[in-house]
Design brief:
Layout lengths: L10 E4 L2 E4 L4 E3 L11 E7 L6 E2 L12 E9 L6 E2 L17 E2 L3 E12 L2 E9 L6 E3 L4 E8 L5 E8 L2 H8 L15 H4 L2 E4 L2 E4 H7 L3 E2 L20 H13 L55 H7 L17 H12 L7
Parallel strand pairs: 5-16, 7-12
Antiparallel strand pairs: 1-2, 2-8, 3-4, 4-6, 6-9, 9-10, 10-11, 12-13, 14-15
Helix pairs in contact: 4-6
Length: about 350
């Protein structure tokens, strides 16, 4: 476990940018996990001559694979961090392969998932203020920041870097096996176009072309989530994709939240298990004194909305990874539930 991120030679500071090393491939997700409005640079690297085997729910990554995720914010002139969906100024030449422009962004942390012979290892690295390197922080960290919206509104918050056990808590999405594994780089999240230096290409096809993926079926047979902001997709697709990436790693039949009976992963079809008219297994602050997870037509009576909108550590969901409420995601879920027919009488 190297003390410094630079010792991995995956992403390194070079000439005023955070550059990707040779064969380190950037990727993106259809809908990403919300982390206090942070932007993310995601990469994957595999040893020469190895590749991942395709699986609909999980890829069989080779030993030696390194998956990185760098969390950062665009910055304002006064040093505040910006709340924006605009990535256009983040990279030196407009695409992730060209590296992050360190004059335009504030680096917070880089998390690594490393495939060892006995399984995945999660390692959190925290960037120094000079943005020259990041240091391994097994105990995690916390950074006080001020977030500035495009309208000029300011909000102080504490960005929390998870400790080693918290990393494992989210990435061990099978409660029985308790094995850490990647959440984001799976078929349904990766099945989308991406703007590489060579042009736009479907990510799964590109991985196959560069030798990082074998066994890829015809794309028509590959599942895919949608971008939760894509107005051309149905409201149900958008909401389910949002819940899948933000909640599904715990709320699935084998996940840490399996005892709740609330299944929010993408493949769930039973509306009761999805939360419609489902009472909580335990009442308390987490329920907001509401009776059902989802009350059709009434987000203001639904526990799901209460927990997603809350910033109370005893009530908010997800429990880790955020200090702020995701206003756009909460609004989507509110609209989705308000559109549902029926009632819980």
């Amino acid at each position: 476990m190297p003390d410094n991120l630079s010792q991995w030679h995956v992403v390194e500071v070079q000439g005023g940018k955070l550059a990707l090393n040779e064969r380190v491939t950037p990727y993106d997700l259809n809908t990403a996990l919300f982390t206090d409005y942070a932007h993310k640079l995601r990469t994957v690297w595999m040893p020469e001559g190895t590749s991942a085997g395709y699986g609909e729910d999980d890829f069989d990554y080779p030993v030696g694979t390194i998956i990185s995720k760098t969390f950062y914010y665009p910055i304002a002139e006064d040093g505040s961090v910006l709340r924006t969906d605009d990535y256009s100024q983040d990279f030196t030449q407009g695409h992730a392969g060209s590296g992050l422009n360190l004059d335009k962004v504030k680096l917070i942390e880089t998390r690594l998932l490393v495939k060892r012979a006995d399984g995945w290892q999660a390692l959190p690295y925290v960037w120094n203020d000079a943005q020259t390197d990041a240091v391994l922080e097994i105990a995690g960290d916390a950074k006080r920041l001020e977030l500035v919206s495009e309208s000029g509104d300011r909000e102080a918050f504490t960005y929390v870097v998870p400790d080693f056990n918290q990393c494992s808590g989210c990435h061990a999405d099978n409660h029985a096996k308790k094995a850490v594994r990647p959440i984001g780089p799976r078929a349904r999240h990766l099945n989308k176009g991406y703007g590489y230096e060579s042009g736009t290409e479907n990510q799964l096809v590109y991985w196959q072309q560069v030798g990082y993926l074998t066994g890829l079926p015809d794309l028509a047979e590959v599942p895919h989530n949608v971008n939760y902001k894509d107005a051309s997709a149905s409201l149900d697709e958008r909401a389910r994709s949002y819940l899948d990436i933000n909640c599904g790693h715990c709320h699935n039949p084998s996940g840490p939240a399996d005892t709740s009976g609330l299944m929010l992963y993408g493949a769930e079809q039973d509306m009761r298990k999805l939360g419609v008219c489902k009472p909580p297994v335990a009442a308390g602050t987490g329920s907001g004194d509401r009776r059902f997870a989802i009350v059709p037509g009434s987000p203001e009576e639904s526990i799901l909305n209460f927990r997603v909108e809350s910033t109370d550590p005893g009530a908010m969901m997800p429990e880790l990874g955020r200090s702020l409420s995701h206003e756009e995601g909460a609004e989507l879920l509110k609209t989705w539930i308000a559109s549902m027919p029926g009632n819980c009488s």
